[in-house]
Amino acid sequence: xxxxxxxxxxxxxxxxxxxxxxxxxxxxxxxxxxxxxxxxxxxxxxxxxxxxxxxxxxxxxxxxxxxxxxxxxxxxxxxxxxxxxxxxxxxxxxxxxxxxxxxxxxxxxxxxxxxxxxxxxxxxxxxxxxxxxxxxxxxx
Length: 140
Description:
The structure is a single chain. This protein is α+β, with helices and mostly antiparallel strands. It folds into 2 domains: 5-38, no CATH class; 46-139, GMP Synthetase, Chain A, domain 3 (2-Layer Sandwich), CATH 3.30.300. The chain is built from 4 helices and 6 strands; from the N terminus they run βββααββααβ. It has helices at 34-38, 46-68, 109-122, 124-128; strands spanning 5-10, 17-22, 30-33, 75-87, 90-103, 132-139. The strands form 2 sheets. A 3-stranded antiparallel sheet has the order 1-2-3. Helix 2 packs across helix 3. It is elongated and about 55 Å long.
């Protein structure tokens, strides 16, 4: 399986701008620029997209872990915060911090943590990130 997205950029790194488009159409000429990445201008940026991918991947992986163990979540809500830091002349994504709020009837905290840690470690986005990954959770 392959998934595709395209980026088109015009201008310099700091003053230029670009658009991101995905084959699914979810991103359709979505703007990104220096200002959307390092300031707060409206648009997206690579780190925000990685955070969304990591939150979505982990949450789905956890749903499969729970299903395999015989549990059906009422809700799994995950926030991912991706950190980018300057190192030398460039920037590095250093962390992805997952915060999960879960409502899973009939599960005890120890079993939930075991399954959540497995999802954190084994979701494909976690495996591709060369960054520190942390996961905290609240179980209703």
